[in-house]
TrEMBL record:
Organism for this UniProt entry: Streptomyces haneummycinicus
PANTHER family linked: ENDONUCLEASE-1
Pfam families linked: Endonuclease_1
Name of the protein described by the UniProt record: Endonuclease
Alphabetic keyword roster: Endonuclease, Hydrolase, Nuclease, Signal
GO molecular function annotations of the record: endonuclease activity; hydrolase activity
Classification of source organism: Bacteria, Bacillati, Actinomycetota, Actinomycetes, Kitasatosporales
Keyword Hydrolase attached: yes
């Protein structure tokens, strides 16, 4: 086939048209876009292999089987685990407190004012599992929090609105709900969804479920579902949350929170 030469005049015209398109705000497609394989999460072909391609109840059931294969730790061991999972990336002597965002010395743990303690994000009274090995010691939902802020949260469900929590980093609360600071709303939601998939009532513990209510009390439910879904979408997993998931998987429980790896699975299941 003969190559048809392009005149200098036509080249100048092409350049002029390209320049005009750029100036008009048009963007040409990237020639070397990453392939679909390059964007595949690291554990899809191994850890999540049995779940890939599923949705709805089938996805939930598959994830339950996958993440139930875990190493359980004692409640006393949680102290040291949280010092590793929630370590301040800028100061290895400190942990970052969930609700307030404060960096506090690892050594200041306990029950006194100015200390940090172990917060059950899925309140342990919601299903009455206490601190027994199992849901009561699952560090995917246990986080370091300021003692006073933890007390203010109590066992309230999660919802928007309320008054500012003293030293709460922007968290809000009212008589029946708690709203964490914006930077960890997604973290809280994904911990709640993890618990609802991990504990389905088949291993001696209550069947934990997310519902659309507050004031759930001792029932094995936490709300509000619509709000938690919004938080998951508004606050995607950041580097701190992803690192935490890796530390739990590699060094402690050897299971993962699937909603950190795949936050879109929340919408698929709920």
């Amino acid at each position: 086939m003969l190559a048809i030469p392009i005149s200098a005049g036509r080249r100048r015209t092409a350049v002029a048209l390209t320049t005009a398109a750029v100036l008009a705000g048009l963007v040409a497609p990237t020639l070397n876009a990453p392939s679909a394989e390059a964007a595949t999460p690291a554990y899809d072909d191994t850890y999540y292999a049995a779940a890939i391609g599923k949705s709805g109840p089938a996805l939930k059931a598959s994830l339950h089987t996958i993440i139930s294969n875990q190493t359980k730790i004692s409640y006393s061991a949680v102290w040291d685990a949280l010092k590793a999972t929630d370590q301040d990336p800028n100061n290895s002597n400190n942990v970052i407190l969930l609700y307030s965002g404060v960096s506090r010395a690892k050594s200041l743990y306990g029950g006194n004012n100015g200390n940090w303690n172990r917060e059950h994000v899925w309140a342990k009274s919601h299903g009455d599992f206490g601190t027994s090995t199992g849901p009561g010691t699952d560090i995917h939902h246990l986080r370091p929090t300021d003692v006073q802020v933890n007390s203010i949260r109590g066992n309230k469900d999660f919802d928007n609105g309320g008054s500012a929590v003293s030293n709460g980093g922007g968290s809000l609360t009212d008589s029946d709900s708690f709203e964490p600071r914006d930077a960890v709303k997604g973290d809280v939601a994904r911990m709640i969804f993890y618990m609802a998939v991990r504990y389905e009532g088949g291993d001696g513990w209550a069947d934990l479920e997310v519902n659309s209510s507050v004031n759930n009390g001792s029932n094995p439910y936490i709300g509000k579902l619509a709000v938690l879904k919004e938080w998951n979408a508004e606050d995607p997993p950041d580097a701190f949350e992803k690192r935490r998931n890796d530390v739990i998987y590699n060094s402690y429980q050897h299971n993962r929170n699937p909603f950190i790896d795949h936050p879109e699975w929340v919408e698929s299941i709920w």
